[in-house]
Amino acid sequence: MSSKQRRERLKAEVHKSILVAAMSIIKNEGAEALSIRKIADIIEYSPTIIYAYFLNKEAVLIELARQGYTMLIEITQNRLALVSDPKERLEVMLSAYIQFALNENELYQLMYTTGSSVPNVEKSFPALASFMNLYREQMQLITGGTLLEDTFYSNYLVCVSFIHGLALINRYYKDIDPEMNNIVFKKAVKGIISTIEFS
């Protein structure tokens, strides 16, 4: 391995360790507790090193949110690979979204709180546009390609609203029985599908 390759590998490892440390702080103390100093203490580097990778704390949060969208797309695509019926695929997508929101609670909240603080969310998070396109393509399959963009967008916002609501309920009621949660998931997915317009 050349010295240049070693430097690049070390650089990638430090970058990753910064993000892992930041996510650890967020999970244990909340996003508001995140600081460059705390990250530096965890990875045992000086804050100056971290500033060589990220301009400030907000840049770290944005990068974590970007990773969250990428992870959500990957999970959704993996689930989609298992089904072929268009409506069933939409149900699978919604279920994957809900499960991600619950399993990656802190990251999910971070994705949306960070998104609300940037001037242009789609520019800051290109993966968000890719994620929306998964829904757009699926809804177009169901309608035979006749779905208008305004109708798609209202459908998509309905989906997101339901999922935010479910995620919030699980944050509030922390002791919900998993079986009860499953019942709620199924009812919610049916409810979402029933509200979607396909013309």
TrEMBL record:
Top-level division of the source organism's lineage: Bacteria
User: Which residues belong to the signal peptide in this entry?
Assistant: none
Q: Which residues does UniProt assign to DNA binding?
A: 35-54
List each copy of the HTH tetR-type domain by range.
12-72
Keywords, sorted A to Z = DNA-binding
Q: Which Gene3D superfamilies match?
A: Tetracycline Repressor, domain 2
Q: Which GO terms describe its molecular function?
A: DNA binding
Q: What Pfam families does its record include?
A: TetR_N
**What protein name applies here?**
Transcriptional regulator, TetR family
Q: Which organism is it from?
A: Pedobacter westerhofensis
